[in-house]
Amino acid sequence: MSSHDELKESLAEVIQGAKLKAKSRGTSIKPAVETLGSACYENGVLPHELTELIDLVTTSAGNYLDQASLNSIIRNLYPATKVASEIVIKVVACLGHGVLKPSLTIQAALLRWIIMINHVIEGNALSQSYPVLFNLLDTAALRPSLCQLLAMITRRRHVRPHRIQTLLSLSRQTGSDPALTGLLRVFKDYYPEIIVGEATRGKASAFKHPDPAWRERLDEIQSAHAQTSRNANAVQDAFHVARNGNGARKATALIPEVHTSHANESSVTLEEIENAEGLVKALETIEMPNQLISVLADPLLQKLLLLRPDAESLQRASNWLVSCAQDLVSGDGDSEMEGILEIMRGYARATRNLPPVFLSLLSEVLKTWNGRGQASMLEVLSYVPLPSSDFSGLYEAVFQRLEAKVLDGTPSSQLAVLHCYTSLLRNWAAFLLAQPQGRDSTSSAIPDLVTHVNKLALTVLQTAAAASSFPASNHDNNSSSSNTVATHSAVLDFYEEASRIASNPQLQRHAQIVILPPPLVYLLHFSASPATVSRLCGVLARYKAGFQTAMAGSRNSSTYSVAYINGFNGFLMDVCNCLWRARAFNAQDANAHGCLLPPPSSRT
Amino acid sequence: MFTLSASPAFGALATAHLRDVEAVEQGLNGDLDVRHAGPVTKSTLAKLARDGGVNLSWDDYRLGVLGHLEDHGMGGVAELMNCTMTTLMKRS
């Protein structure tokens, strides 16, 4: 019996049992409640069952389940998916005094549950029921949980004068209840100048998460469910200010969250923006937050600064980074370095850009870098912007140091660097394509990069071949041959990128075509993998198209020397001789290289 | 030795293509007297036609292999051949 059936069965049993008084039930309901609880704990609750369970615990009329069973059900209510707003409305509706409402302990447990699932609620039902929740504050039994929930969902528009009044008087009546003081502090964050005095000075609850272990289990269940349903829409909502509570990694703890304090009634703060529409409407009036460095980690602030670039703000952000880097260089904060790299990677990924200050910072960091966080480092560096002059300056400042740290003679390290160059080339191509048409800024950076990588690619091929031929003694041929294919495909990734630049008429003007090193062509051509050979042919075909348009464009053919073109044509001739004409290694045809074999060996 | 039919990379795929052609032929005209054995060359194809196997010209066979490769996600070869070999350029 699958555990889902188990859940369904025990659920039906419990619902049936709840209709009868304890005395009139034939058997005890405890075992059914227990199986239900463990089934929920195992796999989480799907939306349909969740509705039934919530109906069960929120109705008291005709519900004869005992307190302990209800509590145990609520304790195990791990939703497997997002929670619909109807569920939240049902829970909110059952709060308060009344004959038909569940007991106050159950209500408090439900509130605790809402606090814990707050981050997986769909829609803004909670925010809409804010007034209802607020008016329940006078119920002492619910107050601690309620204050915590309100503190989580309060937005600027919720903070109204009458609510401040109510809170202050409640706080006075209850002798500064710590929970109320905590909520008051949240209100004070929004309007620091209105709420003053001793009210917020007392002891305040810190609003800790009620049950971190529960939260952890919930995350596990949710991610397991998302994986099984191949539902990969767990992306960070890009139009919200990111909050650390919402599943943030530890790296972001380094960067302060977005808070705006110098706001007045007419201004809009980032924290209030809920969706894309809101951002567009308020774009011009948004107040900058206190800590601009949060731009590194906060998707909303990133968008704001992209759409409304502001020299002063960027300067403030870079000052922060510089001082942070100085701390790093002087102290020994290895873990922090990894964190910073992680954040930079997030920033570069989101904005497709690396500000100059990053570049100089990275250049400094690379001097003393110990190789930790290599993946992040390589990815960040692949976003280095296209230099306006040539590649050598950039190479000396950044990539030479990188290579010195990363390359250690193993194929895997060389492949890692090669991947980095491939994405770098792709990003440069994308950057050039995004430029307005007609701008001719011939930079030698791309040809320089390709020339540089030519050497690396050849090395990779040779080390990989050596690495796979030496351990062949232990009959590990299978894995070593797939290794070679993987290496070949990594090399081809780069050249496919390069050939796309060579054959794209718009990109061509920016970059001269650099032909592949001859040994590389033949190493790949005589690979045993059809995919490798085919991709090589595709690359050659695109290069050929590129040369053709380049030659047609400029009749004087000054860009490329005849010998250069003939060298390339030789590749075509050799490949065709092998594959099509059944004349392999023929060196008699015009331009043919005879696959670079020395004449005597091809004659025999 | 390094042609499409015989190279270590493409030999198996080229043979698979020939078998496809033979199967189609068999479906249309009943049994074939002989099937091709070993790597295909221009002369073996001619011999095959004489002996009652499929009647396939050398050029059609090579084009067929290119198409077969393309169907299996390896369009690069066809791309290169189409833009380099003058006979193919005329065809398209």
From TrEMBL, chain A:
Main localization of the protein described in the UniProt heading: nucleus
Domain of life: Eukaryota
Stored Pfam families: CENP-I (PF07778)
CDD domains found in the cross-reference section: CTF3_NTD_HEAT (cd22647)
Cellular compartments annotated: Chromosome, Centromere; Nucleus
Protein's UniProt keywords contain GTP-binding: no
Keywords, in A-Z order: Centromere, Chromosome, Nucleus
PANTHER family: CENTROMERE PROTEIN I
Family, as annotated: Belongs to the CENP-I/CTF3 family.
Protein name: Mis6 domain-containing protein
Organism annotation: Apiospora phragmitis
TrEMBL record, chain B:
Name under which the protein is recorded: Uncharacterized protein
Species for this entry: Apiospora phragmitis
